[in-house]
Amino acid sequence: MSAPLSRLEASGALDDDGLTDLYRVDGPVTRVNFVTSVDGAVELDGFSEGLSGLPDKRVFGLLRMLCDGLVVGAGTLRHEGYRAVRLSDERRAWRRAHGLAEYPTLVVVTSALDLNPGQAAFADAPVRPIVVTHGRAPADRRAALSGVAEVLTVGDDAVDLETALVRLRERGLDHLLCEGGPHLFGSLAAADLVDEVCLTVSPLVTGPGAGRITAGPPGPPKGMALRHVLEAEGSLFLRYTRK
């Protein structure tokens, strides 16, 4: 006999304090945050922005407030036009009150170091970003980026993500939030380095064409435990953690 289905709802509207309590974690954690359409698309018209409504932006900003390091792949940084990671006065005050640095540190993962040091994500950053790469990355690009970021080398021929997380935590970045892209998520999952997945399901059917929230070589499935389901304006907000 199949298990009964149950309806999961938030008990009334959540203010920022209530929402923070639901997403706050203690200790080292690697959390991934993505938005997807009902039919599994990771983007609309080429960008994730098209799937995101105001409730998703609220959770997106909250998760940034909670993290020590914001991790993103170089392709996503370029394609989505990342700017400097900044927070509102209220969220910065919350971080100070809870013993966190005023801003999270941007961490960019890249093999080719194909990044523009003049991009606002680097040039206007309130905290010096960290660029994670490997030993065979081009020396000229490494030198150019070292003026605006700490260049962290982990691995000889490819980025060693497990070692990278250890090195980041040695720098005090215990709570890591990964915003993609799909290849970085896929690599973290394949290395069994994902502790949490926060997923927004946008109430859109986009049709074929777009990719999934993960990409790269397949690996064994890993079980996750559902921690909560929230709903706002037709979007679902799911939080899964390691079992």
CATH topology of the largest domain: Dihydrofolate Reductase, subunit A
Note the run of SSEs as H and E: HEHEHHEHEHEHEHEEE
**Number of DSSP E strands:** 9
Name the CATH superfamily classification of the largest domain: Dihydrofolate Reductase, subunit A
The computed structural class is alpha/beta
Helix content: 25-40%
* Rg from alpha-carbon coordinates: 18 Å
Description:
The protein has helices at residues 16-23, 54-66, 74-79, 89-97, 120-123, 139-145, 161-170, 182-190, and strands at 29-37, 69-73, 105-109, 130-133, 150-153, 175-178, 196-202, 224-232, 235-242. The model has no long low-confidence stretch (mean pLDDT 93). With 243 residues, it is an alpha/beta fold. The chain contains eight helices and nine strands.
